[in-house]
Amino acid sequence: MSTKTRCPGRISALARQLTAILLIGLVAILTLAAYRALAQDNGNEDFTVYLHPNDVQLVRVYPREKGGKILEETIPSDAEFEVVVEAKAGAAIHGSGGKYSIQIVVRDLTDFTVVHRDNLEGNLAYEPWDEPVFWHAFPVPAQGPAKEYHIYEVLASLQVGVRNPNVTFTKSPLFIIW
């Protein structure tokens, strides 16, 4: 009568292979998470995005006090504020003078409404986007006391080109009207 026994060497080899696969997957996930954090950094003044010469990218979008210089997470309900959009274009596409369109949508996540929309259109390499690195501040009116303690978010999109356009999106960190 033959008895089947498990080979301990075989099990440990399988365990080592599964461990290696899990570690590779974990490293891949962590690398992707770090890349996404880089691609959407909304608070670092030294933020750098490296682009292909034929690519454009919305770097970040954030609210700030009117005329301010930094991201604000709290906006007074009785004050106008600005939504800043930062973008970058590769040298080749920027030099082409292609048509672009930037849209922003300010959303109130508390009552599920759109409180403001705006857009900017033009051609790359001309005012106001005459340099490959670009930013624009969209004015947003005061929200009033009815919007106190409402949580907001800004969505932004950039479209470059007419046929088969290059399109990129980003969103702001959440902020509150107080």
Task: Offer a quick outline of the entry.
This protein has helices at 8-39, 91-95; strands at residues 56-65, 74-75, 81-89, 99-108, 113-123, 133-140, 150-160, 166-171, 175-177. The chain is an alpha+beta fold and 178 residues long.
Account of the 3D structure:
The chain has 178 residues and is an alpha+beta fold. The protein has two domains: 7-39; 56-177, Immunoglobulin-like, CATH 2.60.40.10. Helix content is 21%, strand content 39%. It has helices spanning 8-39, 91-95; strands spanning 56-65, 74-75, 81-89, 99-108, 113-123, 133-140, 150-160, 166-171, 175-177. A hairpin with a 4-residue loop joins β4 and β5 (113-123).
Query: How many individual helices?
Result: 2
Q: Span between N and C termini?
A: 81 Å
Structural class by helix and strand composition: alpha+beta
CATH class of the largest domain: Mainly Beta
SSE blueprint:
Elements: H1 8-39, E1 56-65, E2 74-75, E3 81-89, H2 91-95, E4 99-108, E5 113-123, E6 133-140, E7 150-160, E8 166-171, E9 175-177
List descriptors.
alpha+beta; three-stranded antiparallel sheet; 178 residues; 2 domains; 21% helix; 9 strands; Immunoglobulin-like
